Known about the structure:
Layout: H1 2-11, H2 19-38, E1 57-61, E2 65-75, E3 89-103, H3 110-113, E4 114-118, E5 121-122, E6 124-126, E7 149-159, E8 164-169, E9 179-181
Amino acid sequence: xxxxxxxxxxxxxxxxxxxxxxxTSSSRTTAASSTAHHRPARRRRRSQPRGAPVGTVQRVNxxxxxxxxxxxxxxxxxxxxxxxxxxxxxxxxxxxxxxDDDGGTYDSTASGDVSLVTSAGAASPLxxxxxxxxxxxxxxxSLIGAGETxxxxxxxxxxxxxxxxxxxxxxxxxxxxxxxxx
Length: 182
């Protein structure tokens, strides 16, 4: 098909490229390929995920209140949960502490505010029946008054073989004002 197109163009009165044009084009190709052979091979560097190290306290503006939030631990794998897992996944827990520094009462949901990012994308929140990260009837992020500190754990379902990249806290389940840990 390509040959037919060239013949059709040449048959319509198109001028054939001059030999100097062909030679210049050929010289560039040769120069480029010879340069490529002399470059040292670059090792691809894995980019460092953005965010503070786990354990670091970060301040978050949450509208009417200011919070100090710390992801204290990522439990991977999380065992003995009694959770209904999809085949090929396992449970991961994210433990955190939230302190309402000042302002109004903070009232939200942990499964909406905390997200876990893996090498395959965002992980799904998981209902945990028992253990360290048991999902409570009353969310630990409910009604945190000024000066109060609440701790808790959020469970996630993560595909096996994926790498945990970061944990994000987004006040009131919104991206503006979110903070990240790696």
